[in-house]
Amino acid sequence: NAGVTQTPKFQVLKTGQSMTLQCAQDMNHNSMYWYRQDPGMGLRLIYYSASEGTTDKGEVPNGYNVSRLNKREFSLRLESAAPSQTSVYFCASSGGQPSGANVLTFGAGSRLTVL
Amino acid sequence: DQQVKQNSPSLSVQEGRISILNCDYTNSMFDYFLWYKKYPAEGPTFLISISSIKDKNEDGRFTVFLNKSAKHLSLHIVPSQPGDSAVYFCAASGVGGTASKLTFGTGTRLQVTL
User: Fold this and answer.
1) Which of B112, B51, B49 lies closest to B78 in space, CA to CA?
2) Cβ contact (<8 Å) for A97 and B44?
3) What is the pLDDT of residues A48-78, one digit of tens each?
């Protein structure tokens, strides 16, 4: 059972280049999320998708776009990368809150460096 | 506006002793609080959660305490083991729709020494 799979694991970009981070989950979860982790900042939500066909901005959406391709896949796109987007990106999914906390399952992360 | 705060960036504890990680929050609308553990080069993994209607939840060596009046929660690890060395994130959320998004703290790095 793979859980949440992110690709690529590492990427180096030059300022102005574009790229897409891919994420897929095999747990039949409705909700998917993209977070970024920076030193001293914790995990900050970029975008999320509560269900297939919907996407919403999180805390730090500027410079990013997302696509919920189907129930399994949620991609994050940087149209024109900037050094401030150097970070570790985590994709996560959840099955909602049927009876309690909204427990997210995370992927292993994608480390992006923008020069 | 940091709604979830972990004021201790790091903590060092001897093996076998108790580790206490603290978390404060400002949003009284939070209904659930979660702790995640993160090893280097891996994604965070869920550890334990607590509902706002409870003041304690226990799972093996891990216990979370919630003090709603103080808007404070803590994670106790007893006894601490070297494999517990990791970064611990506190997170909080409301219930339903957009409120169910998790808001994370900045993390506390726990080192358990021999």
Assistant:
1) B112
2) no
3) 999 898 999 999 999 999 999 899 999 999 9
